[in-house]
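A note from the maintainers: we've had questions about how concatenated examples are separated. There is no special marker in the raw files; a new sequence line simply starts the next protein. For clarity in this README we add a label.
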Amino acid sequence: MDRPRTVFTLLICLWCGLFPLSVYSQSVHLSDTQADKIGRRLWQNECGGTVSGLTSWNSGENFASLGIGHFIWYPVGQRGPFEESFPPLLAYLKESGVTLPPWVADSHGCPWPNRSAFLADLNSARLRELRTILANTVPLQARFAANRLEAALPKMLAAVPVEEQAKVKQNFYRVAATSSGMYPLVDYVNFKGEGTSPTERYRGQGWGLLQVLETMNDGPALEELRTAAAQVLTRRVHNAPPERHEERWLPGWLSRVRSYQ
């Protein structure tokens, strides 16, 4: 049963000063309708809404991208600069009562060592089974993404000097206070992270939600969020190592942030 206070209501109460910041660290719950709606928008953004897109491995990357949020899964024994999010999703699904096959539940990393091996196995029984699980757990994956947002604000505030915290907090709540603000906040944190990890930087500059909130000006909240996100993502591409060819992704990224309205 859904709790009567949704994520959005809790954020508004925080905005109004009715609860201390520590309340924000409590578990949050989306209603079934919210979870399904946000989950399907995430699925459309990352996978084009297709079942086949739920299991991907992009060219030039050393990890699989899985689920409606293209959660990152590194091969066994490998790591990279980006935060690995698929194992926590698996743990969340298991805690929520989803039965996972042993090859997933007992894994110590992505079982495919590289993109070539993954693509060669794309039509295997294992990946068909995984796609079925992911297609059937869209609302749960949306709740998992929302839980990441729940923890984002304290992390972001801890990552900036005291004199910059007020702007970050104000812009966060300005977006949250809009009628459709939950989707862009959940989506961007899932899409590009909180912006607090020191390894998620090019030339010392990040591209997460923190950097977007820092870049926003004082205009209408969602318009400012879209503009700032476009600036931050364009800067990331300009700063990226040339061999990554991130310019190929920028049009899709900019199209995605234009949906924040």
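[label: protein 2]
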Amino acid sequence: MQQHLGRLDGVSKVEVSLLTGKVAVLPRPDAKLDPKKVLTATYDSGVTVAQMTITATGWVERNAARQLVLRVNGDETFPLKLDAAAREIEALAGIGRTVTVRGRLYTKPGKESKQKPELQPLEILEIVRKR
């Protein structure tokens, strides 16, 4: 799996811990790393993903559908799961301040599922920094 993920565009390093069962995919500083491709590549390598978390910096805004999103660059956004943490940073929407969050993009469904996993709305686990 380490080699499989290491071939993805934008990947600098893949760290696998058999002891904890965790995999860290580290992006190159100058590259864009697509979480959906990471999730799909992990699934395609035969490994079951229990959950996927990211740390991302961007700004909060409302998209054309008025959905609250975290925009991490010009064309990449993550819809936010509307919960207390998302509501805490909702006040930043539209004012151009950046925020760094640690959030969950995927949690494995309770029952065994043979379907390819799909990214879920970003559930904010921690607000690391507001600027």
